């Protein structure tokens, strides 16, 4: 059985109060990460920065921080019919523009801190 299924089953069987405490810690960490990514995003029109959001995942304890999407997607060239998300172009660069990474460097910088905070909340909730 995949580890994700085991983890989902484990969390499903936890008492509600424990889930609520862990869910709040996850939300706090996701919101904090989204805020830091917004601060790191280069601002030309503000659409890229404003596209950073926290979305609910497949279960109640899964939150996903995203950037880009509909707000930052348009045609490569007018009339081409080819969609291009400039959030990706900003993060990774392209043939015309150097990369200005804002998402993944911020995530990597915060990852250990986020993991530690969530682990602490789990430990606290279970004690």
- Amount of beta strand: 5-15%
Helix content: 55-70%
Give me the Rg, rounded: 18 Å
Largest sheet: 2 strands, antiparallel
Describe the 3D structure:
The structure is a single chain. The chain is mainly alpha-helical and 127 residues long. The protein has one domain. The protein contains five helices and four strands, in the order αααββββαα. The strands form two sheets. It has a two-stranded antiparallel sheet with strand order 1-2. A hairpin with a 7-residue loop joins strand 3 and strand 4. The longest helix has 25 residues. The chain is elongated, with a radius of gyration of 18 Å. It starts with a helix and ends with a helix. The model has no long low-confidence stretch (mean pLDDT 90). InterPro entries: HK97-gp10_tail. This is HK97 gp10 family phage protein. It comes from Rhodoplanes serenus. Pfam families: HK97-gp10_like (PF04883).
Describe, in short, the structure shown.
By secondary structure, the protein is mainly alpha-helical. The protein contains five helices and four strands; from the N terminus they run αααββββαα.
Task: Compile the SSE list and pairings.
Elements: H1 3-12, H2 16-40, H3 47-51, E1 53-56, E2 63-66, E3 73-75, E4 83-85, H4 86-92, H5 104-126
Protein name: HK97 gp10 family phage protein
Pfam families: HK97-gp10_like
